[in-house]
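Q: Got one fold?
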Amino acid sequence: MIVGNNVSHSNKKTKRRFYPNLQTKRFFLEEENRWVTLKVSAAGIRNINKKGLQSALKDAEGKGLIKIY
């Protein structure tokens, strides 16, 4: 979450929050022949589509983003 300001036409500023674009999505894990439900961002979905689910999960585990899937 990032914090910023709403700026009106009169240049009055009020606090607001920027949330990540999280989606709940099911992916099929072919190596284990099962479905995995993940809560991922839109960028994460693109990353999984590019690399593949198994590779993306290993990278996330290596970076410490997830502990186990």
